[in-house]
Amino acid sequence: LWHQCPYAKNPNSNRAGTGGPDAGTPFQSADGKSFTRNNDGCIPDELTQRITNDVGTLSMANTGRPESGGSQFFINVSHNSFLDWFDKSTPSAHPVFGKVVEGIDLVKKISNVSTRNDNPVIPIKMISIRVE
Q1: What are the CA-CA distances from residue 59 to residues 14, 45, 73, 95, 131 (Å)?
Q2: Which residues contact 36 (CB under 8 A, 6 or more apart)?
Q3: Is the pTM above the cut of 0.85?
Q4: What is the four-CA torsion angle of 44, 49, 53, 59, rounded to 10 degrees?
Q5: How far apart are CA 103 and CA 13, in angstroms?
Q6: Residue 131 to residue 115: CA distance in whole angstroms
Q7: Per-residue confidence (pLDDT) for residue 131, from 0 to 100
Q8: Pair 121, 114: CB distance under 8 Å
Q9: What is the tens place of the pLDDT at every residue in 23-59?
Q10: Which of 10, 17, 68, 94 has the highest Cβ tally under 10 A?
């Protein structure tokens, strides 16, 4: 199911990126299993292979607790092994579910733009991405 954050069109909104899917809505995993989002709109940690949060990997953004992810992800621009769900040095647990296979230089460039309040000073718009 496709869901767009209703606040995403205004990058200056303090709610941009906060409009995840509603609680109780259905979700289908990559292997075709159906789930229902919990009361917080979160989904189970379905991808729990021992893949480290290395440069270029896509990882589920969550509160750091199990099954607290919903609709946001991040791209690692450095090796963040302390975020691995199997690394017990911190309580953080962020399962890896993909990898940038082309354009990591652009990702790193974006990670170095000037920010204010953890947002780019000049908004960055993704025109297109391809998922394979």
Answers
A1: 23, 11, 6, 6, 15
A2: 24, 25, 26, 27
A3: no
A4: -30
A5: 28
A6: 27
A7: 74
A8: yes
A9: 888 877 777 888 888 887 787 776 678 999 999 999 9
A10: 94
**CA–CA gap between residue 41 and residue 25 (Å, rounded):** 8
Q: Of how many residues is the chain composed?
A: 132
Q: Quick one: pLDDT at residue 6? A: 56
Q: C-alpha 84: how far from its chain's center?
A: 14
Distance CA(91)–CA(83), nearest Å, equals: 8
First vs last Cα of the chain: how many Å apart? Answer: 17
Q: What is the DSSP letter of 130?
A: -
Q: Which residues of the chain have pLDDT under 70?
A: 1-20, 46-47
Contact between 91 and 76 under an 8 Å Cβ cutoff? The reply is no
